[in-house]
């Protein structure tokens, strides 16, 4: 019986993966609105490809991730992004990376989501408190304190953060499973949308006084 179940599972899995290859490709940006008239503009899912004959080694090269970002800002962190916009050779390869610098004593990469990628983070220097929260209904926090050499993974689409809890600068590098992972910083997206979300909506959603919501909206 067990082996029949196993066989069935195997067949279903094989069927699912062969079906999956018939589906549309995953989106490589937030959206790609269809048009009928190509004269009014044309865009593809991702970027246009250079003629391979014209490719050069520099298309597959990026310089400068040794340079710290300036963390002198409200959150005390700086993300240097190396995605397909900075590094055209990444087009269609499904990967990208970032360098993140954190100011001492609480510099943080605030809670955010990458809608299109999981992220694997490596700590080069400093001490980071990191975590992610699972989806509803559990909303379980998985968190950890990381030291140099440690690696942590943030699953695709989940809210996550990193905070420098040390007294010195911290530096991490991360690889992400998309050429354009996208970033939704929760506070900015919710309280800083353009145009603003009606404050009554946010007051109810966050169980806050409307005045507090309006203050938050001014900040973002
Ligand atoms: C991050 O650092 C770069 C390089 O120093 C700087 O140009 C940029 O303004 C910084 N970004 C933020 C959000 O502080
Ligand atoms: C979520 O919580 C419920 C109720 O406590 C539990 O039964 C379930 O196993 C949890 N799911 C996960 C993925 O942790």
From TrEMBL:
<dbReference type="Pfam" id="PF00190">
    <property type="entry name" value="Cupin_1"/>
</dbReference>
<feature type="binding site">
    <location>
        <position position="109"/>
    </location>
    <ligand>
        <name>oxalate</name>
    </ligand>
</feature>
<keyword id="KW-0964">Secreted</keyword>
<feature type="binding site">
    <location>
        <position position="114"/>
    </location>
    <ligand>
        <name>oxalate</name>
    </ligand>
</feature>
<keyword id="KW-0052">Apoplast</keyword>
<keyword id="KW-0325">Glycoprotein</keyword>
<comment type="function">
    <text>May play a role in plant defense. Probably has no oxalate oxidase activity even if the active site is conserved.</text>
</comment>
<feature type="binding site">
    <location>
        <position position="160"/>
    </location>
    <ligand>
        <name>Mn(2+)</name>
    </ligand>
</feature>
<dbReference type="InterPro" id="IPR006045">
    <property type="entry name" value="Cupin_1"/>
</dbReference>
<dbReference type="GO" id="GO:0048046">
    <property type="term" value="C:apoplast"/>
</dbReference>
<comment type="similarity">
    <text>Belongs to the germin family.</text>
</comment>
<keyword id="KW-0479">Metal-binding</keyword>
<dbReference type="InterPro" id="IPR001929">
    <property type="entry name" value="Germin"/>
</dbReference>
<feature type="signal peptide">
    <location>
        <begin position="1"/>
        <end position="22"/>
    </location>
</feature>
<feature type="binding site">
    <location>
        <position position="112"/>
    </location>
    <ligand>
        <name>Mn(2+)</name>
    </ligand>
</feature>
<feature type="domain" description="Cupin type-1">
    <location>
        <begin position="63"/>
        <end position="214"/>
    </location>
</feature>
<dbReference type="GO" id="GO:0030145">
    <property type="term" value="F:manganese ion binding"/>
</dbReference>
<keyword id="KW-0464">Manganese</keyword>
<dbReference type="InterPro" id="IPR019780">
    <property type="entry name" value="Germin_Mn-BS"/>
</dbReference>
<protein>
    <recommendedName>
        <fullName>Germin-like protein</fullName>
    </recommendedName>
</protein>
<dbReference type="InterPro" id="IPR011051">
    <property type="entry name" value="RmlC_Cupin_sf"/>
</dbReference>
<feature type="binding site">
    <location>
        <position position="119"/>
    </location>
    <ligand>
        <name>Mn(2+)</name>
    </ligand>
</feature>
<feature type="binding site">
    <location>
        <position position="114"/>
    </location>
    <ligand>
        <name>Mn(2+)</name>
    </ligand>
</feature>
<keyword id="KW-1015">Disulfide bond</keyword>
<feature type="disulfide bond">
    <location>
        <begin position="32"/>
        <end position="49"/>
    </location>
</feature>
<keyword id="KW-0732">Signal</keyword>
<feature type="binding site">
    <location>
        <position position="119"/>
    </location>
    <ligand>
        <name>oxalate</name>
    </ligand>
</feature>
<dbReference type="InterPro" id="IPR014710">
    <property type="entry name" value="RmlC-like_jellyroll"/>
</dbReference>
């Amino acid at each position: 019986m067990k082996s029949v179940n196993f066989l069935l599972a195997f067949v279903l899995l094989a069927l699912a993966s062969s079906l999956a290859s018939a589906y549309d490709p995953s989106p490589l940006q937030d959206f790609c609105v269809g048009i009928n008239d190509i004269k009014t503009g044309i865009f593809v899912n991702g970027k246009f490809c250079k003629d391979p004959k014209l490719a050069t080694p520099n298309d597959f090269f990026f310089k400068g991730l040794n340079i710290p970002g300036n963390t002198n800002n409200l959150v005390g962190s700086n993300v240097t992004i190396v995605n397909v916009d900075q590094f055209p050779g990444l087009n269609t390869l499904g990967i990208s990376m970032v360098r993140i610098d954190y100011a001492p004593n609480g510099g943080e990469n605030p809670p955010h989501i990458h809608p299109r990628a999981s992220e694997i983070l490596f700590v080069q220097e400093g001490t980071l408190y990191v975590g992610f929260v699972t989806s509803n209904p559990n909303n379980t926090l998985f968190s950890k304190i990381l030291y140099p050499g440690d690696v942590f993974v943030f699953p695709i689409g989940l809210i996550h953060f990193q905070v420098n809890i040390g007294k010195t600068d911290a530096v991490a590098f991360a690889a992400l499973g998309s050429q354009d992972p996208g970033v939704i910083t929760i506070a900015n997206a919710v309280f800083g949308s353009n145009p603003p979300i009606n404050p009554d909506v946010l007051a109810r959603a966050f169980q806050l006084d409307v005045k507090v919501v309006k203050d938050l909206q001014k900040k973002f």
